[in-house]
Design brief:
The complex is a heterodimer of chains A (about 45) and B (about 270). By secondary structure, chain A is mainly alpha-helical. Chain A is about 70% helix and about 0% strand. Chain A starts with a helix and ends in a 10-residue tail after the last helix. Chain B is built from seven helices and no strands. The longest helix of chain B is centred in the last third of the chain and has 57 residues. In chain B, α2 runs antiparallel to α3, α3 packs antiparallel against α4 and α3 crosses α7. Classes of the chains: A mainly alpha (about 45), B mainly alpha (about 270).
């Protein structure tokens, strides 16, 4: 019996969750970067 | 992540610096490299996991869910391990840097633990006939791990002095991380429904088809690359949030001081 319905749901859940988190991180980073001057960023050389 | 601040105030606000750091966001050469490698890896994982790898003799095509479930569980261990290390380092060095490493990794760990639980439930329905079994030691200890680190993130949101918050959350993380060995060895100690480890078996001789093992390893590597990319961005977001908080606090104190001086001058 094919279980492709379960497989697609499982993979889609992983892609959706990881993709949404990545987008949230990038947009939050952009928004904060506008409000914090570059000299206050420890990682920037 | 160096400790140097050589950019003059406001310099390079519109373009990446020579080192590749982009002042307009949290990207850098490092995040671009890990981002590209992750995307290439994801392409490989989809091709292998959903197409090229064979069906399992007993699980059939459901084995394809293992290529996202097992790496998610591995990343849960890794993320919370990094959180524990960051917490120990914070308690030792009292450094904000380590506290933010711990917090960033915990948030990502919660994400991967949630994914491990959800993909496991989806696999469990056609395999065991049920999404959830309260009697299974692996499932319950993993849920406890998820809830404890969710609690860790909640503790971090309780308003408090920065050092009080960091110390408090570091202690919570070190208590919560004790659950990881319980999760890992639960399948050996209690022998309930969840199967024992296939790859990390006691004789280090995985009884698994070569291409299936290769696909699983690709999944582990790809998810680890994604974790590193997440960590770089999440740490920087956390750092910027702290800077903003410190800055607003300093501005508020300065405003109050100016107000007090102004009032004193008129009386």
């Amino acid at each position: 019996m094919s279980n492709w319905g379960y497989i697609i749901v499982g993979w889609s859940a992983a892609a959706g969750v990881l993709g949404a988190y990545a987008v949230r991180l990038v947009t939050r980073g952009r928004s904060l970067s506008r409000r914090v001057p570059p000299e206050r960023r420890r990682w920037m050389g | 992540m160096t400790d140097t601040t050589t950019n003059p105030p406001g310099a390079g606000m519109g373009a990446p610096t020579r080192s590749g750091d982009d002042p307009r966001n949290t990207a850098s050469k490092g995040t671009r490299v890990f981002g590209i490698l992750s995307l290439i890896g994801i392409g490989w994982l989809v091709a292998l996991g959903l197409g090229l790898s064979p069906d399992d003799q007993t699980q059939g095509d459901l084995v394809r869910l293992m290529y996202v479930h097992v790496p998610s569980a591995w990343l849960a261990y890794l993320s919370f391990g990094v959180t524990a290390m960051g917490s120990i380092m914070y308690l030792w060095k009292r450094s904000e840097w380590w506290d933010l490493v711990a917090a960033s990794s915990a948030e990502i760990g919660v994400l991967f633990t949630g994914l491990a639980l959800v993909t496991g439930m989806i696999w469990g329905r056609p395999t065991w006939g049920s999404y959830w079994e309260w009697g299974d030691a692996r499932l319950v200890t993993t849920l406890v791990l998820f809830l404890m680190f969710l609690g860790y993130l909640a503790v971090r949101r309780i308003p408090a002095d920065t050092h009080v918050r960091s110390r408090r959350s570091a202690i919570v993380a070190l208590i919560a991380v004790v659950d990881i060995p319980l999760v890992h060895f639960s399948v050996k100690w209690w022998r309930t429904l969840h199967q024992e480890a296939t790859v990390l078996s006691s004789d280090f001789d995985p009884k698994i088809d070569d291409l299936m093992l290769f696909t699983l390893m690709v999944g582990l590597v790809v998810f680890t690359l994604v974790y590193v990319w997440f960590m770089l961005h999440r740490f920087r977001v956390a750092w910027l949030e702290e800077q903003l908080l410190d800055h607003s606090l300093a501005d508020a104190i300065e405003a109050r001081r100016a107000e007090a001086v102004g009032t004193g001058a008129t009386t």
